[in-house]
Amino acid sequence: MSQTPIDMWETLTTAGIITAQKPAELPSDSPWYVKLLVAFSAWLASLFVLLLIILTGFASSLMDNAYALTITGLALIVAAYTVLRQSDHVFATNFALCISFAGQVLVTLPILDHADKGLHWLLVVLAVFHLLLAIVMPNFIHRVFSSMLAGGYLSYAFGAPYQIFITGIIMVITVWLWLHEFRCPKHMATQRAISYGLTLTVILTTASRLFPETLYFNDGPESIFLWVILSPWLWWVGQALLGAAALYTVWHILDRLGHKLFAPYSIAALLGMLAIVIATMDTEGITVGVLVLLLGFANSNRVLMGLGTVAMLSYISYYYYLLEVSLLDKSQTLLIIGVILLAINFIQQKIAKVTHE
């Protein structure tokens, strides 16, 4: 039988592990199924409230008034923020999340109504809006969701040709956030939530490039001067950013483990990572999966390891069944990647053995 918090406190006190005074009341944790039921009840209740708002909006022509929609949406977000600040109860938290998401939809609709005036910059505005929510809203799930939307809006803001370039920038930022997760303990929870959101952004936007027909639009803003300069090089720049992020991750792990940069073991690891990046340039997403897996290993984060493993296996599976590439070419590419990985492992084991001797 499991002990209550009070019984556990008394047991630890008797064993001499705890010497502090017992608090008047210890917080109790409800079973997961109770939390799930309460969360479901909160979402159900909030859906009824939203249905009432929608019906009232149609009855009073609220849905046709952009200013009224925006004000109502912002009011819902402020209300959700107030609830999240004052209560951490499961029901209140989930109710506030649903209200906030509805408010975001109401704010987004009037903005997208002006898409004919330039969808690119409207998506940038939405990205900034959700980034502010990710920083301000005092809830982990909300921050993950908002930062994921912020990265997604920014990735699609300038069209498909720019997407891999922006994804590379987001990946560099994500790598830096994860590898410096413990630098500022005061803001660690916020940084971790934003890191998760941006990681999901990179994984999902990379997956969307596998299905070009799902992209909302494929043209970039030709009025931007950088478009003329960078358009022939965007793919290469994006791949270079992903490669730089991967090499920085490997170097950071080696430095954390006490290996010098120009030691044989470090050089072998960096060259191996570079070989993986080059070999997987035509196989969309594998570098991203490997990089997320490395970040999970660097921070002992099983969630990241799981995300990286699932992403990598999904990208490999998609590439293997891709009809645009012949089976012979796909088999050769995957064979080369496998040989490189085995060679890296063999060389590092040999170097480690020589070093220890």
Description:
This protein has helices at residues 5-14, 32-59, 66-86, 90-112, 119-136, 140-156, 160-179, 188-209, 225-230, 234-256, 264-279, 286-298, 302-320, 327-356. It has 357 residues and is an all-alpha fold. The chain has a domain at 31-113. α6 (140-156) packs antiparallel against α7 and α12 (286-298) packs antiparallel against α13 (302-320). The longest helix is centred in the C-terminal third of the chain and has 30 residues, at 327-356. The radius of gyration is 25 Å and the shape is globular. The mean pLDDT is 78.
Could you give the topology of this structure?
Elements: H1 5-14, H2 32-59, H3 66-86, H4 90-112, H5 119-136, H6 140-156, H7 160-179, H8 188-209, H9 225-230, H10 234-256, H11 264-279, H12 286-298, H13 302-320, H14 327-356
Helix pairs in contact: 2-4, 3-4, 5-6, 6-7, 6-8, 7-8, 7-10, 10-11, 10-12, 11-14, 12-13
Pfam family, one: DUF4401
InterPro entries: DUF4401
Domain DUF4401: 31-347
